[in-house]
TrEMBL record:
Cofactor: Mg(2+)
Domain RNB: from-to ranges: 464-735
Family as reported in the entry's similarity comment: Belongs to the RNR ribonuclease family.
The name this protein goes by in its record: Protein DIS3 homolog
Gene3D superfamilies (alphabetical): 2.40.50.690, 2.40.50.700, 5'-nuclease
A GO biological process held by the record: rRNA processing
């Protein structure tokens, strides 16, 4: 069955274009239930025995949540207790448009077989598809589509005619109007909160509930503490007219009453607007995209030098006026900056936050304050009945909202991470707070790994250059198992050197766009912690097939130069290759080989040639204006039994460290030049813009005071020269 919709729209050139959208309807879409005998389905998802202990639903039942339930209660839906859930296509599409993170979490739940979540494509089913009626809003149409689908399921599974112990379909919604209409049509419908509270065997789920509007009204006071946020329509008009500025809200770590809003401009036109005081901060949270209004110039302030931490023992919901006065007094003497106030929120960038619970001193109170690990995030008020259990633990909390009559945002408990101070717990907090993906690789990702045992095929050899005869070796830190680069150097008959950098060819194993590629792109890099490594790709690749270990054949991508004794590049070529590394060395082992005059083997000769050229390359780079930014690296010594760090040692930098660095840089430069030559229209140049002048303010102020002390005994001419020389070098350092 085919539905079509025809409409016209105006094109950019001013013409009119007719658009026809076809919508196909079917009557053979499965319901996904084991109970059903009508649908011809191979592997039903929804269980026949869909029972859960509830004082509302004593019968087996499937759950159908509406869009707002999924958006706001995803933490509950992820719990293992919630099973046999029908996710309608209408809901899935709405969630995708409104929240990409929630949509991803929902898709992950659907892929978990143990959860028994079934996606029903009601928008393409002949009996559940509905047209939008004249004058009906999109939201009302979607609510009606959900009710029609629930009604169809009830009829399809013959639950309305069955007894009280028969299988039923339950609509979960927090919309009173939607619930009432469903009940009028003979459907079973509950508010999400009342259904969760009815699960007597799982009271812990109540803590996961995001606060409803009714709950928020109970918690907040009647006193208005913050200005109303402007609607998005007014904000957009104000930004277009220049009345408001759009920027990213950056809270201060040291002063909870202060923040800056970074307003992106063109080139060096970017500015920072100072925000001071709770009312001017107006419920913005770190990393939110906000609209700010500049205050009159005579109200501009300077950044405060006072360190203020929110102690959490609020004078209830009163704004600390005495602390704000202290803030203003401390800033009076310093240089003033553009100052403004937050008038609206353009985009919330909330996430679950790690931290600890401050248990209320009021006996039997269920309302407590949560202190985030990140000092830039405000304390969050939550309700929990397990405060005594959570005390002393690291937990995760999500923000539900921040009403204008509440001193703190309201939120809900998500999960416990473990005891505070425990190594595994603190590592988990570190990874979560810095948004480092560290979950185990999914089966969908692992399914794209090559089958073992793996070997290079004749077809692979035919497409690659055979470089297994070359004296290739790798130089890495001790204990390195993911060896992704190797080098070789040999003298040619004409007296020049042939130098090669060989990079593990990961692209042979990871095809563009598959689950493995997407996961690697999401992770971006391998992350190293003390005694722990979080791989970008599964270990089979990172530490085996894509690790250029010694004495095994590996696929590589090679950059090979002909270089003279002055380190001038005469020829460059790139090739896919097969190599066989002759040695996997540490920096210290490679340095010992170079320094030992008694060693003259091929590996040592190769290392000496590389080291000699690297010194020349480094000198040339520095002469050409390269900036050297070196910082001390440290290495942890671990206890062999407990795996706890017991000592800290500064890494000693050797010539071999610089040797590897120089040739990796040279390979990058050569690749960049090749891309520019071959794809000049697509080549990108990464250019760091000049830092804004405000970055120099503190340093220049400090330099002025130091210079004035040093030069006070000198004559005026020398005084001026010293000042300008000092500021010049200061600017060079800070720009670097």
């Amino acid at each position: 069955m085919l539905k079509s919709k025809t409409f016209v729209k105006k094109t950019r050139s001013g013409g009119v274009m007719k658009v026809v959208r076809e919508h196909y309807l079917r009557d053979d879409i499965w319901c996904g239930s084991e109970t059903c005998t009508e649908c011809k389905q191979d592997s039903p998802v929804l269980q026949n025995d869909a029972c859960v202990e509830s004082n509302l639903c004593s019968y087996p039942h499937y759950l159908v949540p509406d869009t707002n339930v999924v958006l706001h209660q995803i933490d509950v839906l992820e719990n293992p207790v919630i099973r046999n859930v029908i996710i309608l296509q209408t809901v899935l599409q709405e969630v995708r448009h409104r929240s990409a993170p929630v949509h991803k979490r929902l898709k992950d739940i659907i892929h978990e077989k143990e959860k028994h979540f079934y996606t029903f494509t009601n928008e393409h089913h002949r009996e559940t598809f509905i047209e939008r009626q004249p004058g009906e809003s999109a939201n009302d149409r979607n609510d009606r589509a959900i009710r029609v689908a629930v009604k169809w399921y009830s009829k399809h599974l013959k639950t309305l005619e069955s007894g009280p112990d028969g299988l039923k379909v339950v609509l979960l919604t927090n919309d009173q109007g939607n619930k009432q209409k469903a009940e009028e049509n003979g459907m079973v419908a509950f508010k999400f909160e009342e259904y969760i509270k009815s699960l007597l065997a799982n009271p812990e789920l109540v803590d996961l509930l995001a606060l409803s509007n009714d709950d928020k009204n109970e918690i907040t006071s009647s006193k208005v503490l913050f200005p109303e946020h402007l609607p998005l329509s007014r904000i957009q008009v104000g930004i277009k007219s220049g009345s408001y500025l759009q920027g990213t809200f950056r809270a201060s770590r040291d002063n909870y009453l202060e923040a800056t809003v970074f307003v992106q401009g063109d080139g060096e036109d970017s500015t920072e607007v100072l925000i001071q005081g709770l009312q001017n901060l107006n419920r913005a949270v770190h990393q939110d995209v906000v609209a700010v209004q500049l205050l009159p110039r005579n109200q501009w302030l300077a950044p405060s030098s006072v360190v203020l931490q929110d102690d959490g023992v609020a004078k209830d919901d009163d704004v600390e006026e005495n602390e704000e006065e202290k803030l203003r007094l401390s800033a009076a003497e310093a240089a003033r900056k553009p100052t403004g106030k937050v008038v609206g929120i353009i985009k919330r960038n909330w996430r679950p936050f790690c931290g600890m619970l401050n248990v209320s001193q009021i006996k039997e109170s269920t309302r407590h304050l949560f202190t985030p690990a990140d000092r830039r995030v405000p304390r969050i008020r939550i309700e929990t009945r397990q405060a005594s259990t959570l005390a002393g633990q690291r937990i995760m909390v999500a923000i539900d909202g921040w009403p204008k009559n509440s001193r703190y945002p309201n939120g809900h408990f998500v999960r416990s991470l473990g005891g505070a101070g425990e190594k595994e717990t603190e590592q988990e907090v570190l990874l979560l707070e810095h948004d480092v993906p560290h979950q185990a690789f999914s089966q969908a990702v692992l399914s794209f790994l090559p089958k073992m045992p793996w070997a290079i095929t004749p077809e692979d050899m035919a497409k690659r250059e055979d470089l297994r005869h070359l004296t290739v070796c790798s130089v890495d830190p001790p204990g390195c198992t993911d060896i992704d680069d190797a080098l070789h150097c040999r003298e040619l008959e004409n007296g020049n050197f042939e130098v090669g950098v060989h990079i593990a060819d990961v692209s042979h194993f990871i095809r563009p766009g598959n689950a493995l590629d997407k996961e690697a792109a999401n992770r971006g890099t391998t992350v190293y912690l003390c005694g722990k490594r979080i791989d970008m790709v599964p270990e089979l690749l990172s530490s085996n097939l894509c690790s250029l270990r010694s004495n095994v054949e590996r696929l590589a991508f090679s950059c090979i130069w002909e270089i003279n004794h002055k380190a001038e590049i005469l020829k460059t070529r790139f090739t896919k290759s097969v190599i066989n590394s002759k040695a996997s060395l540490t920096y210290a082992e490679a340095q010992m080989r170079i320094d030992d005059t008694n060693k003259t083997d091929d590996i040592t000769q190769s290392l000496r040639g590389l080291n000699k050229l690297a010194k020349i390359l480094k000198r040339q780079r520095i002469e050409n204006g390269a900036l050297t930014l070196s910082s001390l690296e440290v290495r942890f010594h671990m206890d062999s039994e407990t795996h706890d760090p017991i000592d800290l040692q500064t890494k000693e930098l050797m010539e071999t460290n610089s040797m590897v660095e120089e040739f990796m840089l040279l390979a990058n430069i050569s690749v960049a030049q090749k891309i520019y030559d071959e794809f000049s229209e697509c080549a990108l140049l990464r250019k760091h813009p000049a830092p804004p002048p405000s970055n120099y303010d503190v340093l220049i102020k400090a330099a002025k005071s130091k210079v004035s002390l040093v030069a006070s005994a000198l004559n005026p001419v020398i005084n001026v020269k010293i000042y300008y020389i000092s500021v010049y070098y200061l600017a060079v350092i800070t720009r670097g």
